[in-house]
Design a protein that fits this description.
By secondary structure, the chain is an alpha+beta fold. Among the domains are: 7-86 and 93-182, no CATH class; 513-654, no CATH class. The chain contains 23 helices and 18 strands. The strands form five sheets. Strands 9, 10, 12, 13, 16, 17 and 18 form a seven-stranded mixed sheet that branches. It is globular and about 85 Å long. Bound molecules: zinc ion. This is Transglutaminase-like domain-containing protein. Residues 378-451 form the Transglutaminase-like domain. It holds the Pfam family Transglut_core. Residues 54-63 have a biased composition (Low complexity).
């Protein structure tokens, strides 16, 4: 992705959007129009069904009363450094002045002349100017019984159109209800909901209207405000790093970058403009029903590694930073997370958004000019070092109603050199920042948005965006092999140990672990910590450990099926060896049951000291994709057909 345009561009854009809004509605800029269904109900009876001869425009007015669910007001609260913004006091609830109503219809059966085509123009303009604003904010109209066909005004959303009121009517004079097809839609939506793990509202937002007649789902509407005010402020404040930039932990550049997600959804405004209908932010389906369909704590389906995150991932891609109306953290948090009832999905949407929209600030990092960041500044510039990523993640998470903390500590990332046997253990020093966030089932999950976003490759090489979701899904114990928190309460281990010692952490990779290339997990679904032998150096002559050595690795989780959860059918995996004394190179296929790959080899056949032994995936055979090829097919073609290989892991012979 190209460098984002300077911040000024987005502010001009947002101002234009604001001007457009002012043309459309009267309320003072910044004032937060308040509205609730309760208020609405007290002012007028529930809208009766439209008479059969009534033009559709009448229905459209029904939906323009949708309340706004967000404010574009600038954030007044600014805090230093990296902290999330504290909860804002609630904006005064001033009901904006209403425009004159159309003449009453009590004296006539005729509908009044339609003012209203105007509304559709308005809505089109809003879409043009602040497309991303309107998308999620809308959809509330799908709650309305009559709005099924008024999606245009619905998508304009923003709630700013409420000044056009439906004319008064007298229910007793209206003809009986025409038959509706609405009742069938909720059933479909239900079925869809139960079939997927993440919120299906992304996939089929229009299929979600919940029980229309009674409008039961309304409480959801208050969420954003409540979340702002009831926020548990558990955020830990860490001082901005002041140390040498070079010691900041970064993802190891030795990892071969895995390919960018092939399914990454469109990022450009044009693409998102043409895509799916707006997310029905407020028209949430019955939460109880959704939660009932979710895996219970500890259930098989609660495994993050094989969970389908396409919903939050696709949604996060719809909010390119350059198109945001402002750097308002609360607004962005609401947009990104509201469609998802699951805390895990909310957190994932934030994690993914950071990948798409924040680049590592290699300039400041290598230039030693890192300055403390604020969440707003990170949103505006799209640049951050680890503490900027972590600070923005927690700021967004807290605004979204999640509990989250920024954790500072020591990472084994860019610049980390494993100890050699006998090396002294240096004292603990902070050089990295990451997060913990409370996901479903009350579980505290460690995540590293910075390492999950891309690769720092060096001072003179451009930053490489590269989505690495395993920094979201990795279990906390494995995470703890590369992240040591400065606060003892931030280990969040799941193996029953409250913490590990600094010595244990540093000694974990003494002598260096084998090299596992970046493609292992995303491309092949193999767990990086499952490889045997675990350490990098293998002795060709090792009388103590016998003449035969076992090579083995395992899928990333017990439920993993690469065809279903990964990128397709598995490749044949082979071990590249040098042969006795390194004189007979060979490619030996692993045995596998689909979950575990294993092979026993005589040490002397591995090669000569100084050579390498590697695991490769056989990616092509005779130019054809190698996915799904069996071991016996591989054997029959070995030596007869050209083959392509992809690196998975590597050891060195000594
Ligand atoms: Zn799993």
């Amino acid at each position: 992705m190209a460098e984002p345009p300077p911040g000024s561009a987005s502010s001009i854009k947002s101002r234009i959007a604001a001007l457009n809004l002012e043309e459309v509605h009267a309320p003072a800029p910044g004032s937060r129009p308040t509205y609730s269904y309760e208020q609405a109900a007290s002012k007028k009876a529930r809208p009766p069904p439209p008479p059969s001869q009534r033009p559709h425009a009448q229905q459209r007015q029904q939906s323009v009363n949708n309340p706004p669910i967000h404010s574009n007001a600038p954030t007044s609260t600014r805090q230093p450094s990296n902290q999330p913004i504290a909860a804002k006091p609630e904006a005064p609830k001033s009901q904006p002045a209403l425009p004159p109503r159309p003449p009453s219809r009590t004296n006539t059966q005729q509908a009044p002349a339609l003012p209203p085509r105007k509304t559709s123009e308005q809505s089109v303009r809003r879409r043009d100017s602040t497309e991303s604003v309107s998308t999620v904010a809308s959809g509330r109209s799908t709650l309305s019984a009559n709005s099924a066909k008024t999606s245009v005004s619905g998508t304009s959303g923003g709630g700013q159109l409420y000044q056009v009121r439906a004319p008064a009517y007298d229910p007793s004079k209206l003809p009986p209800l025409p038959p509706k097809k609405a009742p069938e839609e909720p059933k479909q939506a239900r079925a869809t909901l139960k079939a997927t793990k993440t919120s299906p509202s992304i996939v089929a937002p229009r299929a979600l209207p919940p029980q229309l007649p009674t409008r039961p789902a309304l409480p959801a509407r208050q969420d954003p405000k409540e979340q702002e005010n009831v926020q548990p402020e558990k955020t830990q404040v860490i001082p901005p790093p002041r140390r040498s930039a070079l010691s900041f932990g970064l993802n190891k550049s030795t990892e071969t970058p895995p390919p960018v997600l092939s399914t990454r959804p469109g990022l450009t405004p044009t693409e998102s403009a043409g895509t799916p209908p707006p997310i029905p932010l407020a028209s949430r389906p019955n939460l109880d029903a959704i939660m009932a369909s979710k895996p219970k704590p500890g259930a098989l389906g609660s495994c993050l590694k094989c969970r389908d995150f396409s919903g939050p991932d696709n949604h996060a891609a719809r909010y390119p930073r350059q198109n945001l109306p402002s750097s308002d953290v609360a607004w962005l948090a609401t947009q990104l997370t509201s469609p998802f009832p699951s805390f895990t999905d909310k957190a994932r949407a934030l994690f993914t958004w950071l990948h798409h929209n924040v680049e590592y600030d290699i300039h400041s990092f290598f230039g030693g000019t890192i300055s403390p960041s604020t969440p707003e500044r990170t949103i505006t510039t799209g640049l951050a070092v680890c503490e900027g990523y972590a600070g923005l993640f927690t700021a967004l998470a807290v605004k979204a109603g999640l509990e989250s903390v920024v954790i500072s500590g020591r990472g084994k990332g860019y610049g980390h050199t494993p100890l050699k046997p006998g090396d002294p253990i240096l004292p603990f020093k902070t050089d990295h920042a990451w997060n913990a966030v409370r996901i479903d089932n009350g579980e505290w999950k460690l995540v590293d948005c910075c390492w999950g976003a891309g690769n720092v490759q060096g001072p003179h090489t451009p930053y490489e965006k590269n989505f690495k979701p395993y920094w979201f899904t990795m279990d906390n114990n494995e995470f703890g092999c590369s992240h040591f928190p400065s606060d003892n309460s931030h280990f969040y281990r799941t193996d029953g140990r409250a913490s590990i010692s600094w010595e244990e952490y540093m000694l974990d990779d003494v002598g260096e672990r084998l090299t596992v290339y970046g493609a292992a997990t995303p491309d092949h679904g193999i767990g990086a910590r499952t490889f045997l032998p675990a350490m990098k150096h293998i002795k060709v002559n090792d009388p103590q450990n016998g003449p035969v050595i076992r090579f083995q690795f395992t899928s990333v989780c017990p439920h993993w099926e690469n065809e279903r959860h990964g990128k397709g059918k598995p490749y044949v995996m082979v071990l590249h060896v040098g042969g006795r004394d390194g004189r007979k190179t060979d490619w030996l296929p692993f045995q596998t049951d689909g979950k575990i790959w294993w092979m026993d080899v005589n040490r002397v056949d591995l090669g000569a000291p100084g050579q390498k032994v590697s695991v490769f995936a056989v990616t092509t055979i005779s130019g054809e994709d190698g996915r799904g090829v069996t071991v016996s097919e591989y054997k029959s073609k070995k030596g007869r057909a050209a083959m392509g290989f992809g690196g998975v892991a590597m050891w060195e012979l000594v």
